[in-house]
Amino acid sequence: MFDELRKKISNAVKNLIKKEEKETKEEVAAAEQIAEQQVSKEKTDSPLEVNTSVATKIKGAILGSVRLTEPEIDGFIEDLRKSLLQADVSYNSADEFTKILRGKLIDTRFKAKDINSEMFENVRGALLELLGTSKPGIDIIDAIRTRIGSNDIPVRILFLGPNGTGKTTTMGKIASMLKKEGIGSVFSASDTFRAAAIEQTEHHAKVLGIPVIKSTYGADPASVAFDAIAYAKAHKIPVVLIDTAGRQETNRNLINEMMKMVKVSKPDITIFIGESTAGNALSNQIEEFSKHMKIDGIILTKLDCDAKGGNAVSIAQATGIPILFFGVGESYDALVRYTPEFVVDSILPNN
Ligand SMILES: Nc1nc2c(ncn2[C@@H]2O[C@H](COP(=O)(O)OP(=O)(O)OP(=O)(O)O)[C@@H](O)[C@H]2O)c(=O)[nH]1
Ligand SMILES: [Mg+2]
Question: Which of 72, 203, 233, 314 could form a disulfide with 68 if both were Cys (CB 3.0 to 4.6 A apart)?
Fold first, then answer.
């Protein structure tokens, strides 16, 4: 998870530090030489007032703090920008990030002995600032509690996205999370298309001990959702979790079917389930779905299988839709709430 981004940022910083250390060593050597000359000159000029602190002062000035030159910063920034692009960070986000970072570096005086950790602090600050520019996502638990408080239930949550991205699995994870919070839910097995999809939902329902409303394969998925909502109303179950069949954003018929689902089930929260590993294709997928229905949040799955991790950094900014959670494995508890700190802590090496 994030291995490539971590490595790339780390390498860019290391390269710069190595260069900087080499230059500092050379500068110190030169300074020592100047100082020695100065000292011996002072000795000769005025043998009674030997100022030996000159050497220390020059050395201290160089060793004590370092300001990177603009060409050095620009070289580093360009290195980093290319690395981010290779790790699937979108062009705009990489640009924005390096602009923020450049501003920080230009203003920083590094303590020479801490330059490594200070550099990472700057990168960390810039990443947090970049992530902070994205719209914050809805807090699902809070939203549901508010609705329960005003007796306005059930809350309808619809999961959609391309084939095999983890919709059904993630729906199970959300049900499990809600259960831990003491919030009941019911599944709508509205993938009536893919073989074994209904059984897969039934399996989660059985393990988690929650009801499932289903029909037969080929049945209208919208009417299954309608029945699940009616069931929740009748049994005062606060949340309906609606699974859907995977569909490509380019399949007009399936997108039309989804529009009907949205019209009938009137979801309160529509969540796009996308694979972190989808690379640059992900933002196109989300944008195409968004043309036809409002998407409230993204759950980025399979982050555990994604060596690059760039989508976690830039997909919210690229699409204007916040990430709500990350899927980090197959088990029910492999769901991490999105925070900028989680992303930054996962990417930056602990040093
Ligand atoms: N490693 C990993 N595997 C995941 C994650 N989320 C889902 N999976 C796996 O991905 C595969 C597909 O998951 P499903 O939940 O069936 O995906 P889906 O989107 O419902 O698939 P369709 O209904 O066929 O479109 C399964 O093997 C899941 O266990 C995740 O975050 N990490
Ligand atoms: Mg499914």
Answer: 72
